[in-house]
Task: structure prediction
Amino acid sequence: MASEGKNLIGVDIGSSSIKVVEIAESRNGERKLVQFGYHPLPRETVVDGHVMNSGAIIEGLEKLFHKQKRRDVALRASGHSVIIKKITMPSMTAAELAEQINWEAEQHIPFDLADVRIDYQVLNQRQGQGQMDVLLVAAKKEEITDLTNLAIEARLKPKVVDLDAFTVQNCFEVAYGAPDPLQTVVLLHVGASLTTLNILAGGTTAFTRDIANGGNSVTEEIQRQLNISQEEAEAYKCGGGKGLVPKEVPQIISQAVEALAGEIQRSLDFYLATSGDRDIHRIVVSGGTANVRALQDAVARRARVNVETMEATRIAEPDPKTVDVEMLTSRSLQATVACGLALRKEREKST
Ligand SMILES: Nc1ncnc2c1ncn2[C@@H]1O[C@H](COP(=O)(O)OP(=O)(O)OP(=O)(O)O)[C@@H](O)[C@H]1O
Ligand SMILES: [Mg+2]
Result:
């Protein structure tokens, strides 16, 4: 999307941590990553997409922004209250579409239209068929307002709210260039509580799905089988913790990721069966749980496609004067959404 002005600061309020990325773009278009902030959130701050402990989020935002003068931010909306659908409509002008879209949305969205905010984008015209594909997004106003209100309470100015699926895509396209229209690329973002799938085909989004499963289920399994605390299980999962990692841990992780990999494969199978697309060419994973090698392997084995990890920091060279580069490198998969958000600008040109 064409845009101008300064970059907004990307703020990703995830269920396990807040990530902040700031990018500065020079006049010649060169980008620098000038800030990366990470703040872990206490357990149960966000449950099933609902904020249960708003104090912890406001406190985290205040801490992350306490030295920051700029306050214009792009926020990530939780996928728990959002529906994304690709629909086919007769070809029409932009003005006609603006008029028709609410009626069309009513047929496809199971929420009361009074409670949702509708957004849409024409993906492509089906040449010769008199039809076009439109991406329809419906988000519950209440949950978006909750999140923006929290940011406002922390004295931030939210200018843009976007979804994981699209921010990851934004990051991917800037990091690797526009996707080859002849290739099908699966962007798989696996966080603590949520997995988001965005399949790009013909150069645009062809399918998205959220799966309510992520790294938490792996931690819970370690906790249950070894009868230890959540903190210990989490540390063992990430390869650390007190003393040696018990020898059972890799085995438990391998077992635990099978369920998630199975759900992901069912979504891929569904896409292949319904889209007429025959092959998946690339799978690019991001999100904290993409660090789990056993998950990458389980996905690759099922899909019979090589799995790559997203190199989000390709979008901008980190400035070592202001960024803890070591921390950014170790958390780069977790920074993907904040990176995608940090690419958004103050003003979007209406072309
Ligand atoms: N090195 C690592 N090895 C294994 N798991 C990791 C590693 N680093 C982070 N994780 C896991 O990644 C998850 C956090 O990832 P991320 O920051 O993307 O989630 P989130 O944005 O807070 O959550 P969500 O978007 O699902 O609400 C946690 O489950 C954490 O245990
Ligand atoms: Mg997340």
User: Anything to note?
Assistant: The domain at 3-348 is CATH 3.30.420.40 (Nucleotidyltransferase; domain 5). The two ends are 9 Å apart (CA to CA). The mean pLDDT is 92. The pocket of adenosine-5'-triphosphate (ligand 1) is lined by residues 14-17, 191-194, 214-216, 219, 234, 237-238, 287-289, 291-292, 334 (CB under 6 Å).
